[in-house]
Amino acid sequence: MSAEPDEPEGRLRRLTTIWSRALFPVTSTSLTRAEFEEQLLPLARRLSELLRARNFDADAAKGVGAALVAAHCTDPEALARTLDCVDAYLVLYCGGDGPQDELRMRSSRLQHAMAAGYAVALRERTLAEQEAIAQAALRAQGVVAQALHASEARFRAVFEGAAIGIGIADLDGNVLQVNKALLRMFGLSEQTLRGRRVQDWVHPEDAPQTWRLYEELVRGDREHYHVEKAFNRPDGTALWTNLTVSLLRDADGTPQYQLALMEDTTERRLLNLRLRYEATHDALTGLPNRSLFFERLEKALGAGEGQRFGLCYLDLDGFKTINDSLGHAAGDRLLVEVADRLQSCATAPGEMVARLGGDEFVALTTGPGTERTVDELAERIMNALVTPISIDGRDLLVRGSLGIVEGPAGERTAAEVLRSADITMYRAKSAGGNRSELADPEADARAITRHGLTTALPTALERGEFFIEYQPLVHLGDGSVRGAEALVRWLHPQHGVLGPDRFIPLAEHTGLIVPLGRWVLEESIRQARAWRERYGEQTTAGPLRINVNLSPCQLSHPGLVQDTVDILERSGVTPDALCLEVTESALIGADDDLLKPLRRLAEMGVDIALDDFGTGYSNLANLRRLPVSVLKLDRSFTQSMQQFPADPVDLKIVEGIVSLAHNLDLAVTVEGVETGAQAEQLRILGCDTAQGWYYARPGPPERLQELALVDATG
Amino acid sequence: MERPAWAPRSIDISVPSVSRIYDYYLGGSHNFEVDREAARKAMRFMPGLPKIMQANRAFMRRAVRFAAGEGITQFLDIGSGIPTFGNVHEVAQAAVPGARVVYVDHDPVAVAHSEAVLAGNDDTDVIAADLCKPQEILTSPRLDRLIDLNRPVALLLVAILHFVEDADDPYGAVAELREALAPGSLLILTHASYEGIPLPAERAEGAVDVYKDIRNPLIMRSREEIARFFEGYDMVEPGLVPMPHWRPDSAPEDEDPYAFSGFAGVGRTA
């Protein structure tokens, strides 16, 4: 824009420039100086017009003041500088040739009106902006409040809808707020619960640390704790919970509230208890089972000095018969009744009854005085069984065998104690049952050895721990060796040499007798062949024979005949070199099926000897039926002949038997000949052969060779 | 309904706000006595504080016009505060009719006020969000409505980064924003600094302490530290300079000495 400096437009611009320079430093505008000056130019022009107008226009002047505020000249200093500028330069630059006094007057009035207009506009703007910011603050608070409300509503929904119980209490323990889940758990109304104090919820089953943790928390020494806790419900049942309590602090960290979160574990706990109960109790009788009993026994055995234990091990006599005859249901009912009765026998503290299985029960008593209490307990148990038990209208008489073990704690393991009780119970049973026996270490040891031998038997055969000794059979007429009885021995690694009485019954019991018997037969036949090779088929008095014992078990074994034939054939020994000895008792009441194998062997030429003759009440008439060719007279008949004179009754009996045997074409062998007198007596009585210490003890096969040699040369 | 992440637990207008203090410096009345009290206290140490704010506004005005001249029609102003006058949308829409402007602030009162001011202007909007969480800004539906991130955007960070402490990772936030911008976008930035203040540093520190007291600490950074915000940008002439030196409309020597406090610059993404 260009204007001549002295033209009116040029003068107006000069005024504007001066005004703008004065004003710009006190404005807040973001306009440039030039832009700002352009904004002022119309205002200056307006002032110039108002100065020269015929009439004074106050409103227009006010408008110029207001325009300053609109141009963001809100600092009152801007008004002062504006008025200074108008006062000094408006008349000078815009008055022209007009009357100076009037112009000055008009300028003053314009300034007054401008000031008023500026003040009004600034006031309006200030109020408007204050209003705007207050509204903005309010709206912002509204938004926040709404958000907060929504958030609170959400948290409230979480609080109310949570499956776990939530409660808030102050630090004095006053319950302030609880959710529905918690009310449900406690079975209380909100009103009732709200008035309560946390400290009122002491429960007998509280863990020892529960309330210590609580105190630490409310003191502010602990942020949270976790316990399992029970609460009493109004219906008298217990509520079990997993309880987590946290300390709530305010923004400054000062403890304010306690927050409890609880999970109802009552059902789970009941289930656990039930599972534990089922795992430790017998389903039929409800008595503690073997595992719980062992737990308790171990605890009793682990008790401190001065503590003792007493144990009664009961096995019902003949329970199998009841089960077999009346059925298992009746048997079960009987067991339940027995269990009930036993239970009532052990009611004192430290006493318990358990069912180990089947018809086996145990009762335990503990404490320092079990030497006395165990006897009383045993007596109560035996008495409890006296009254018959009524099952299906039948009165059943129940008897039991009781093994009692008593002793100090800390010496034996539970398994050892129970084994001793078991052994002792079997002693009572062996003694006829319906009685109790007190454990005896020696009896235990024997039983334990027996047990040890039984279990060691199979490996002993594999390892070749058995060997055979031979006891010569001597002809009473000429004193010649006619053969030998094979007697098996066990060279046990710990117990040394064991005789057949120690292990044959065990082998019979376990069935090992069959392979063992076969081995003895093989070994003996092999030995017989060795002798025959050495001395020829015949000695001076006939063939050398080997006597081998057959147990009842072997007798009924289907492979007996075939095995024997195979062994004889394999070693090339004729059947007449073998004599099988069978005990009289094994053949008592034997039927034809049992006798058939023996008959076949006898037909082949094997001699059969009836061992221990005279001890089994045998029916003499039976002798005809038996395929025997030799009677072996039991040593009990010949014992009295060791002295002189012999018992005349024994002499008569032996004489009779010999006579009977010979009439039946049976040879007679006597056992246990220990003296020369005895031998002489038996020879006179007509016995054919004899064996015993008088001739030789059982020994290795070489010994027999020596004897035979002596005999051959003598 | 979820409580927005930005919403504070309550609005306490008894606590001074930097937006309202800024308004007071600029002669506005969008403020409360607590704000004015804090502003007056700071001005006792640095009487020229309003001149710094005014220089900020003037620079912003020139920079927005520059951006419009570069063909940019989308503007994202983070830390917009309370727009008293001469706002980005006024300048931009005057230069380019239909220019789109999105304001962002984390002060709920400033946001509520902006909403009132912008009511009826469909090409503008305001987002309540925090510069330190750029994803909240970038994924906002309001931003999506107005700004196409596949085209250049002028990002304004005017007088805001000096309110972000290093612990809140302002460099990371600026970088995250940069990565979202299309090539040819501009970063328009000013930042407070002890450099250029026509006072001994101890006096300036007095003003800084006022902001510390109102729990809005003012982080004065060196020119080098401020320059690091432009990593990944090519500086537009004349680079990072005192505000009056950035493409002035009038002779810088006419400016108030306080206007030279701090630095301003514009960068362009490759």
Automatic annotation (TrEMBL), chain A:
Q: Which organism is it from?
A: Streptomyces capoamus
Entries under InterPro entries matching the protein: Biofilm_reg_signaling (IPR052155), EAL_dom (IPR001633), EAL_sf (IPR035919), GGDEF_dom (IPR000160), Nucleotide_cyclase (IPR029787), PAC (IPR001610), PAS (IPR000014), PAS-assoc_C (IPR000700)
Tell me which residues make up the PAS domain.
151-221
Domain of life here?
A: Bacteria
PAC domain sequence ranges? 225-277
EAL domain boundaries: 450-712
Against NCBIfam families, the record matches this protein to:
GGDEF, sensory_box
All residue ranges annotated as the GGDEF domain in the record: 307-441
Leader sequence range is none
Q: What is this protein called?
A: GGDEF domain-containing protein
TrEMBL record, chain B:
Full protein name: S-adenosyl methyltransferase
> Pfam families, per this entry?
Methyltransf_19
Which Gene3D superfamilies does UniProt cross-reference here? Vaccinia Virus protein VP39
The species this protein was found in: Streptomyces capoamus
Superkingdom to which the source organism belongs:
Bacteria
Question: Where does the UniProt annotation place the signal sequence?
Answer: none
